[in-house]
Structure formats: structure tokens, C-alpha cells
Design brief:
Order of helices and strands: HHHH
Number of helices: 4
Strand content: under 5%
Structural class: mainly alpha
Protein name: Large ribosomal subunit protein bL12 C-terminal domain-containing protein
Domain Large ribosomal subunit protein bL12 C-terminal: 62-89
Distance between the termini: 65 Å
Radius of gyration: 21 Å
Length: 91
């Protein structure tokens, strides 16, 4: 009985490790594709369309950085660091 529990535990641990490896690999691939798209957009002098950009710019001009970052995150689904960098670039 103890061997069966040990075996099941090992199978679960190996399964979780395999899934984690695949997710990490996928994250790296997505990041690489995003870098390539960013390079192409820079080369073509294109800017990403930001939903509610006018509202965000108004908040930035009024000195409401935190609210601007929050609105940027809501509008784009970006993470905190990405949103802060984007709002800082708008100012």
C-alpha cells in the first residue's frame, strides 16, 4: 500500500514538473514573438493603439499618475510594470 502511494506521488510530481516546463517554454516563446512584433512596429514607425488614450493623457496632465496607470491597465490588460512604463512614456 505504501509503495502505491509513493508511486502515485512520484507520478503527480513528475506531471506537475512537466506542465511547469511547458508553461515556461511557452512564456519564452510568447516573449520572443512580442519582441519581434515590437521591432517590426518600430521599423515601420507604427504605434500601438491604446484604448481610452485621451482619458489617460488627461490624467497624466493633471498629475494623477496612479489613476492613469490604473486606467491603462483596465483598458489594455497590461501588467503593473508595463502600464507604469507606458504612462511614463506618455508624460
Amino acid at each position: 500500500m505504501d509503495i502505491a502511494i509513493l508511486f502515485c506521488t512520484c507520478v503527480v510530481v513528475l506531471g506537475v514538473a512537466s506542465i511547469q516546463h511547458q508553461l515556461t517554454r511557452s512564456d519564452r516563446r510568447v516573449a520572443r514573438v512580442e519582441r519581434k512584433i515590437d521591432a517590426v512596429m518600430r521599423h515601420l514607425d507604427l504605434e500601438e493603439e491604446v484604448p481610452r488614450k485621451d482619458e489617460i493623457l488627461t490624467l497624466v496632465r493633471d498629475g494623477k499618475q496612479v489613476q492613469a496607470i490604473k486606467l491603462y491597465r483596465e483598458a489594455t490588460g497590461a501588467g503593473l510594470v508595463e502600464a507604469k512604463q507606458a504612462v511614463d512614456a506618455m508624460s
